[in-house]
Amino acid sequence: MDEPKAAKQKKTWHKKVIIFLGALFVLGVISLVAIAVVQNKPLPKNIKYGIVLDAGSSHTSVYIYEWPAEKENDTGVVQQINECKVEGNGISSYGHEPLKAGLSLQKCMNKARQVIPEKQQRETPVYLGATAGMRLLRLTNATMAEEVLSSVENTLRSFPFDFQGARIITGQEEGAYGWITINYLLGNFIQDSGWFKYIPNFKPTETSGALDLGGASTQITFESKREIESQENSLHFRLYGKSYDIYTHSFLCYGKDQALRLQIANSIKDATDSILLDPCFNSGYRRNASTNDLYSSPCISKLRIPTAPSTLDIRGTGNYQLCKRNVQAIFNRTHCTYSHCSFNGVFQPSLDGTFGAFSAYYFVMNFLNLTNEQMSLDKVKETVERHCSRPWDEVKKDFPKIKEKYLSEYCFSGTYILNLLEYGYGFSSENWNDIRFLGKIKDSDAGWTLGYMLNLTNMIPAELPYSPPLSHAGYTGLMVFFSILLVCIILTCWLSFRKPKCLHKGII
Ligand SMILES: Nc1nc2c(ncn2[C@@H]2O[C@H](COP(=O)(O)OP(=O)(O)OP(=O)(O)O)[C@@H](O)[C@H]2O)c(=O)[nH]1
Ligand SMILES: [Ca+2]
């Protein structure tokens, strides 16, 4: 029987509408997918650079860092891509010829021009931070220190970078930025955005303490859960939405070069006919030293004795126990006006958590093969003692390529590090293995320079930059997935619930 014409037309019309809507819907999903893909195509990598010069007492290093511009507030994105060790001594050694301080930086700064793309050099910040060597020069002769700084500033301004300043940083800054560097590189500033915060009892990782041993000063910095009784040792940071109460102290004159001078100066009284027997050098080792040069350091000048000879013929006897006695004599532990002190009357809370020990801690312990985390304190002591007892000509024969200045001082430096950590700071065999001796972390040097730049370029936000629980890609992906799912459900329903043809009215 023919269906009424109108009913037939209506059905055809219905069919057309449904097909049209279906096509529209599928088109909508396709365009959604296309937008998602286009929207999330990786942005052209926009890399930024930064340069920091570490003008230390013994030498200067030029570090170049890079990071993806669009992620600069994320943690762990900045990495070191180059280090250039400046030839010669630290800038503080040019007090009498300040122009040479600036000239000494030329070679490494030219290297930086080769590393950083020319079109980005103008916007690349350059910072110079000078540490304990310049602090000592400023104590001795502030004018000379100023002349050295202006010489390096003139040199740095002559390069096509964005010069941001050359200054002597404080010991507190040096400790704080070293702490920021290693925790940034270790990923301890976890941003608890995303799903982390929904995990019950999620605890961001603890931070690591920072131990920095330079040539003229040494720093200890760590997060303290206990009250910090002295204001000068107390820092408060707010980083990525978390607060940190930090203890830090910088011991000027307790870098390993100045400590060696202190040890020698304390022994001059025992010299006979200018010959000084020193147990901190391997037996058979000899070096001449001018006492004027020795006493020229403000760390030593107060130890001058009238009977001191003008030159010293220092002869090694390689005796670890006697060296240990001499080294311990430079730490004053007789007075403390706080509940607890490290040495020289300086407050120190009890040592908490793990520590990263870098700079000379690493150079020395790495040479002595003592960076293995499982090695006991007793074993470490035995190793240093054994090295001290080796005759100098045997040591020299075994390590012909190592600079004599470094090689001759490993007995002293090993003994000094052990006593600074144990006798000075209070580490013991119980927490010795909480110390990690670090050279680099993920190809970036452990040291204050990265933290310094992160702070000055505001790359570590106090509060967490808002980030939705899902990344954009994740959000879009889910949207597309559920849209397709919806289409499939609708199609399935339509196909399975529409009336089969044979049931259509009028057919049966
Ligand atoms: N064995 C060894 N010693 C090194 C090396 N580089 C530097 N040193 C020595 O280690 C000590 C510390 O070096 P740095 O960390 O550069 O010290 P610095 O920054 O010049 O000194 P501060 O201004 O006090 O921080 C100094 O006595 C250096 O002579 C190295 O590669 N091997
Ligand atoms: Ca240093």
Automatic annotation (TrEMBL):
One Pfam family of this chain: GDA1_CD39
EC supergroup of this enzyme: hydrolase
Localization, UniProt: Membrane, Caveola; Membrane
Record: active site: E174 (proton acceptor)
UniProt GO BP: nucleoside diphosphate catabolic process
Annotated binding of ATP, by residue: G215, A216, S217, T218, Q219
Transmembrane segments: 17-38, 475-497
GO CC annotation terms, alphabetical: caveola; plasma membrane
Superkingdom as given in the UniProt entry: Eukaryota
EC number: 3.6.1.5
GO terms for MF: apyrase activity; ATP binding; GDP phosphatase activity; ribonucleoside triphosphate phosphatase activity; UDP phosphatase activity
Main location group: membrane
Function: Catalyzes the hydrolysis of both di- and triphosphate nucleotides (NDPs and NTPs) and hydrolyze NTPs to nucleotide monophosphates (NMPs) in two distinct successive phosphate-releasing steps, with NDPs as intermediates and participates in the regulation of extracellular levels of nucleotides. By hydrolyzing proinflammatory ATP and platelet-activating ADP to AMP, it blocks platelet aggregation and supports blood flow.
Family named by the database record: Belongs to the GDA1/CD39 NTPase family.
Name listed for the protein in its UniProt record: Ectonucleoside triphosphate diphosphohydrolase 1
Organismal lineage: Eukaryota, Metazoa, Chordata, Craniata, Vertebrata
Name of the encoding gene: entpd1
